[in-house]
Design brief:
about 0% strand; about 120 residues; mainly alpha; elongated; 4 helices; about 85% helix
């Protein structure tokens, strides 16, 4: 009886460690995915350069980590991404144009799809 309980406890502990590792890997994937998405959309904007690309990569990576921390969904993911991307555009370009407005909304559509995928993801 005692060995069965010990085996069960060890199995549950291993499962919890595995889930924690999967969550950490997901955070890294989210950060990289959103960072690269921000870079692609930054390159579509007027005035993109090496500095703006690096800033957008960092802003996107932080956005992906925030998504993981709050477990963003199809509604919260695009709102956070659009606000972050738009604010970063304002800071790196000193203003925005009509093109930036449309690019931010295209980014919102793609991040909404990513958020929907996040909702249906299952770890185990």
């Amino acid at each position: 009886m005692r060995s069965e309980l010990t085996d069960h406890w060890r199995g549950e502990r291993e499962r919890m460690l595995d889930l924690a590792l999967q969550a950490k890997n997901q955070a890294a994937r989210d950060g990289l995915q959103v960072g690269l998405l921000f870079v692609v959309f930054d390159l579509l904007c007027l005035g993109a350069g090496p500095t703006t690309v690096l800033v957008m990569l960092g802003a996107g990576a932080l956005t992906g980590l925030v998504w993981t921390a709050i477990d963003a969904t199809r509604l919260s993911a695009p709102v956070i991404a659009m606000l972050t991307f738009g604010a970063t555009l304002l800071l790196t370009r000193g203003g925005t144009s009509a093109q930036h407005f449309f690019i931010v909304f295209m980014l919102g559509g793609i991040t909404s799809w990513i958020g929907a995928r996040r909702e249906t993801r299952v770890f185990d």
